[in-house]
Every structure is written in structure tokens, then in C-alpha cells.
Amino acid sequence: MAYIYPAPGVAGKQVVLTLTAADGSLTGNLVLPALQDVTVENNNDIFTWTQLDSGSKNQVATTATNSMNMNIVLDQTTFFGANAAAGLTVANVGVIGLSSAKTLVGFSLYLGNTSAGTAGKTMSGNAYVTGLAPTVSADSPVWVSPISLTVTGGYTVA
């Protein structure tokens, strides 16, 4: 077996999320640092019906809703952008800029290495950045925010 092993803190082995502008409106990419956790969702919708000749319901899987949810410790440059006024690049706009402008982003999530030491898999696709809600508290003295990528279409795995 070759379990997926995210190897926190080991360069080239850990989970990495990279965002680009899918429509080409911005150049470059943005690597999100300080991921705390990641949840990848693939939820098939189900169409259910009943028939008069059956005591049980019938169900068929239909299209899926895909999303990625995570929490990040906020990095000022990544969240607000390196130079939001200048725009032109994903790094200049930042996470909040991508969300507020409703920019369709391309994402690439490297899941990490495998326990057998071979290269891990990458999930990619297009999505919108949503669900930002930065918080801070006495028990968590750094700003933390959930972030969701609402995927349009399916995932590509490579």
C-alpha cells in the first residue's frame, strides 16, 4: 500500500494549494501558505421517485457538487495581495481580491507524497473563492479564516 502522506514541513512533500486566474484576466499564480486542514468534497445529487407497483423508492445518481474547504492562517500579503491597486497578477490581487471580484480561478491541490516515497497526486479544476470569514481570539492570537473553493465542473486528477 502507498498511503497518502502529507508530510507537514517537508519541502516538496506537503500539501500545496496553488491558484491562477482561469480566464486569463490575471497572470501568475498564488500559493496559499499556512493551510491548517483541507476537505475535498464530491457530493452526487440523487433523484428519487416512487412507483405504484413498488413498496420501495427508486434512486439514480445525477450530477455532483464539488468543493474544497480549508482553514488558513492569514498571511497579510497573500490574503490582501502584494499590490492590490496594481492588479494584473493573482499575487497582487490576493485571496480577498479574487473572492470579491468573483474571479474564476484555476486551482491545483497537491495532496502530498505517498508513504512509499513516490510522487503523490494533484487534483485540479476551476472554482470560485468563497466562504472567507477571518477571526481572531485570545486562544488563537493569529488571524484564521475558512476558505472554500466552489468547483465548477469536475476534478482532474494527475
CATH domain class name: Mainly Beta
Structural class: mainly beta
Q: Give unreliable regions as ranges.
A: none
The CATH topology turns out to be Pnp Oxidase, Chain A
How many helical elements?
A: 2
- Number of distinct beta strands: 9
Helix content: 10-25%
What is the strand arrangement across the widest sheet?
3-2-6-8-9-5-4
What portion of the residues fall into strands of 2 or more residues?
over 45%
Write the element-wise H/E pattern from the N-terminal end onward.
EEEEEHHEEEE
Count of folded domains: 1
| CATH architecture type | Roll
Distance separating the two termini:
19 Å
Which whole number gives the mean pLDDT? Answer: 91
Question: How does the major sheet shape up?
Answer: 7 strands, antiparallel
Which value, in Å, is the CA radius of gyration? 19 Å
Task: Name the overall outline.
Answer: globular
